[in-house]
Write a structure and sequence with these properties.
single chain, alpha/beta, Ubiquitin-like (UB roll), Rossmann fold, nine-stranded mixed β-sheet, three-stranded mixed β-sheet, 12 strands, elongated
Amino acid sequence: MRLNSVFKKIAAPKRSPNTSQQKTVNRGAAPRTASPTTTNVKKNNKKKNARTIRVYAGYIRLFMIALAVAMLTIIWCLGYPQKAYTNSIQQMQKLLASTGFKVQEIIVQGRINTQQQDLLKALKINRGDPIFAIDLQQARFHLEKLEWVRHATVIRRLPDLVQIKIEERRPIAIWQRNNQFYLVDEDGTAILTKDHRSYGVLPLIVGEGAPQRSPELLALLKEFPTIQKNLQAISRIRERRWDIYLIGGILVKLSDASLNQGLEILENLLKEQRLSVKNVNEVDLRSPERYFVKVTPETIKRIKNSRKGKLA
């Protein structure tokens, strides 16, 4: 047996020349690309996650803001900032007072009828108080609550002076009610008094609502000097009209609707001396077109006797 034939049988099979080239080509080829559906799913998941994170972040921010506001509100309601501010102001005022900025003198101008005790009690300022601790508006408010004080001004003059200017009420009438006497000022304010005679000769008024309406009537009477000379008292009737009592007891009825016209007629009657106490009891001037006179019984008798004499 020949060796050549044996070697021919066991020899390895021959490789085709294109095998190595195919492997080389396969190794250098690009990887497989994902399908479009998978890519869209991944993108949508990322967007959803980002949106969810933003929503939760917004909730957390709102919660933190609400918590901060709640804490600040609680602190404010408990008064800690106010107390801290007040304490700091008081400390500063004491420091300034130690350097000479404290009350040493109080000057009051315009006080006539107001009692000094009442004024100092309402003012609530003592010697030695820090001058910057005085609340000028509050001091003025308390002073104007006094019955005699119409207007008050409180001035701080550094370093140690407090100046007070008072405008007191000026009485223009005396109001009698339930056996008590009140002074009435230009604003219609009634001030209870024990000695009304010490304030001079003032018109006497009576009736409910008289203090509030009397300043208007008294201002109008200044234009009628003859009525003022003969005026004795004024009465407010049912809070809708006036009765005037002249010296001697003559009653004059007036209406609010024609007050000015009625006073003009009364002024002329007094000037012409047509109203005599012996002859007239009452004059009704409530109608602007005509007036009525009620004469005394003696006058009626004289008139009747005179008529009888003429007939005889």
